[in-house]
Structure formats: structure tokens, C-alpha cells
Amino acid sequence: xxxxxxxxxxxxxxxxxxxxxxxxxxxxxxxxxxxxxxxxxxxxxxxxxxxxxxxxxxxxxxxxxxxxxxxxxxxxxxxxxxxxxxxxxxxxxxxxxxxxxxxxxxxxxxxxxxxxxxxxxxxxxxxxxxxxxxxxxxxxxxxxxxxxxxxxxxxxxxxxxxxxxxxxxxxxxxxxxxxxxxxxxxxxxxxxxxxxxxxxxxxxxxxxxxxxxxxxxxxxxxxxxxxxxxxxxxxxxxxxxxxxxxxxxxxxxxxxxxxxxxxxxxxxxxxxxxxxxxxxxxxxxxxxxxxxxxxxxxxxxxxxxxxxxxxxxxxxxxxxxxxxxxxxxxxxxxxxxxxxxxxxxxxxxxxxxxxxxxxxxxxxxxxxxxxxxxxxxxxxxxxxxxxxxxxxxxxxxxxxxxxxxxxxxxxxxxxxxxxxxxxxxxxxxxxxxxxxxxxxxxxxxxxxxxxxxxxxxxxxxxxxxxxxxxxxxxxxxxxxxxxxxxxxxxxxxxxxxxxxxxxxxxxxxxxxxxxxxxxxxxxxxxxxxxxxxxxxxxxxxxxxxxxxxxxxxxxxxxxxxxxxxxxxxxxxxxxxxxxxxxxxxxxxxx
Length: 590
Prior knowledge:
single chain; 3-stranded antiparallel sheet
């Protein structure tokens, strides 16, 4: 009996396990400290009262409730994964963890979320929406989903960058580019996915206003602005350069390059004359150190030089950005670093444009009085041919047959021999023979240029920049002009007709563009009058063939004077715009 009484007293003195520890079969650890008649439970954030209070613990979290929350948490995650889909973005970060007790139990990140109808932050909910329903506004009235924008950037890096390797992207993430380079992103998306004529007009107006506001009004200088101008100009129709619509943009880009010193190289020898800043530095005053550009700046400067030289070769006038010996140093650095696979092609495109710039400088600075200067032309021809041969000999094997390099080389050769066409016949037999040789070489290289164009893969035709189509047009126009020449004792058009069937050549080119318009690829959504741009090229060539069949057939028997117009009433085919386009070249001086 006494033992039973003792046992009962021991039970009364022994601390009972709390309800949580009893359910989980864990041992309660008690301290000897007491406060206000209550014993402290080590590791808990509340006071242990007698067991009768534990049974009434309204503020304790029941283990069954915890398990229920775990189940709801799992269901919520499954719902999130189904909603976001395979291409959906993941939540950026978990919600801040609410304050919990120091119980030795698994902590739940979302245990405060209600069991029924869970709610998420609005920003997180937006990220869970399908990217296909999210739109990125390029310009007013023209939007693009984020999924399509991702696809466009991938296509740009794979298909379009090899045609113009001056603006590689460090990232193809749309969200990151929209934060870091929003102007470049919008320009890329619109150039790669242009819309109808009205949208193009709206974008052109917005782009020019934005560039002018940033550079002229806000006086901002950044590589992004120059890159956006490059992308905007590279894939434009070359007729816009003829009309002078892009002169202001080119001048702004060239000015920015000079202001940002992107065309300078500190490693090169000093100039013969110094600027006022360099003179101040020599006097011992502190002047901010001007470091050379990084590779991104080098590509930017070389890209503007490439566009400017291509336009000047097309228009036969001085370039707004002349050759600088710094460019050769830039090429060496880029070729050494090889940050991108396209840098090798970039260097070769710049090198051949350096040759073109020297040719343009020689011819545009000549007298131009209509007299065929035999000695000057012979010397220029010899030097340029030697530079072209040296350039070809140092090309990597994979670039020898590159369509861009081949086109640039043939265009230079056409321009090289062209002065013989526009000069007057001379009396001396030796000079006359040399002029005939020059005209014939120009004719042959123009034919080679047109036929080599058709060796371009169909899947990259829509990705070509304006110099490529400008070269083709220039070659065709030179052939037609030479076939129209009559009354020149140094040239016989009847012999030239036997060298090429111009109607067959034009038909093959038209079929080539027509086949290219059927191939899926970037920029094939260029819609104008319910046609893509390649189909328009095919139609223009078809009109040119009709004109040639009327005015060039039997040229010797039915000579055509230089003043006769293509828009004759006898050949009104209902496409006066296309006829005017070709008339501008055939009877012009380009």
C-alpha cells in the first residue's frame, strides 16, 4: 500500500510528456527553472502547464493539421507545374519564411497558405501564365509574344548573324535584353519579323524620332544606339540609300563613333599632329586616360565602316567613314580573340571593304572629265588586282567559296573596269584597244556576278543584307547598258550578245527568287501588297525581261537610244512602279 502511495506520488512529481511529444514518441526535455509556478520546456517557445492545459492547447499546431498542410503544399506545386507548362518560368524566389517556433519539426515554407483556394502574389501569378499569351510591344499596333521573340532571337543568331556578323548577342533571353538593351531588342525583332507597310512606316517614324531624341536632345552616347542603327540599315532596301533616306542616321552613327573614340587604338604610333587635349596632357596637367575600345566597340566601328563603304560603292561617291589604319589593328585583335565563330568572317568582310574603299577614293578623286586616262587606270587596276589576289590567298578554306566574299570581290572588279565605259573613244589605236579590254572585263565580271548569285543557298536569301542585292542589281544594269551601246567604235554589242542570253539570265534569276520565297526562314513575313519581298524581286525581274525582249532583241537592227524611256506606251503592263525602278538604273548613271 505504501509502495502504491509512493508510486502515485512519483507519478505526480514526474513531468508528463506534452501532447505533441506523446504523439510523436519523442522525449520531453525539462529544465529545473520555474517561472510563475510553471516548468520550462527546453527548446520550446511557450511554458509547459499541467497536462490538462496541454489537452486544451488552442494555439498548438496539431500534427494532423501539419500533415494536411503538407498535402495541400504538394497539390499546390503540382498545380503550379501544370499551369506554367514546360516552357514556363520558375518562381524567382520563395516567399519570406514566417516566424516559427524552435520545435524540432520539419519547417514548412508555405504553411500560412490557406488550405482552400490558395492565393499567390500577383507578380508570381503573372510568371505562371503561359508565355504564349504574354505580348511584347515593339511599336504601337505591332506586338509579339515572348515565345515568338525567343524564336526570333535564336533565328537571328543562327541564320542572320552569319550574313552580318557585326552585332552578336551576349544573351538571347528576351527579359534580360528588354532590361539591358530595349532599343536593340525592338529593332532586332522588327527587322527579323517585319509586318505590313503601315507597321513598317510606323516603326520607321518611331525609330528615327527615338534616335534623334536620344542623341540630339538628351545627348546620350552608347554602343546600343549605334548597334540599333546598324541593324536598322543593314537589312533595308538599297533603294533607300539611293534616295538618301538614311544619310542622317549614318552621319549620327559616324559621329557617335568619333565621340566615343571607338575608332582609336592607343597601341598605334602617335599622329603627326596632336589634339588640344593631347597638348594639355603633355604640359603635365591631369587628363582622363582614354582607353581603347573593347571588342564590342571594335565590331561596332567596323560594322559602320562596312555599311558606309558598301553604300559608297553602290553610289560611286566618297564614303562618310573613310579607311583608318586602326581598323586593321581591330581585325588582328578580333581574329586573335575569336570570341564568336563569326568573327573570322567579319574580319575578311572588313578587309575586302578596305580594298573597296581604296578603289573608291582613287576614282572619286580623279579628274572625271570624260577622258580615259590610260596610265592612271592601268596603275589603279594593277594595284587593286594585286590586293585582291593577296586577299584571296590568305582566306581560310571555308571562306574561299563564301557567297558574301565572292559577291564583294566581283562587285569590286565591276567597278574597277567601269571607267572605260563612261570615257570617250580615243584616236590612238593602243589606247582604244586598252579601252575595249576594260569594257570587256567589266562585262565579263558583271556576268560572273549574276551567275554566282544563284549559287547562294535558298534558305539564306531572305537573310541577305542590302549590299548583296545591290551587287546583283549593279551587275544586271551594267550588262544591259553595255548591250545598249551603239555607235562606239571600241565596243561591238553584237559580239557581246553572243556571250550571254540576257533574257534567259533574267528568267533564271526570277525563278531563283521565286523558289527562295517558298522556303521557310527569317524575314519571309515581309508583306507588301500581299507579297513577300522575294516574290516582289521575282516580279521586278519578270518586268525587266519583258522590257529586254522588246528593246534588246536584235540590238544591231533596232538600236535603242540612250534617251528612250522604258515607260513607253507600248509596254504599259500595269506595273509602272517596277518599270520606273528599272528605268532609274538603265538610263541613270549608277
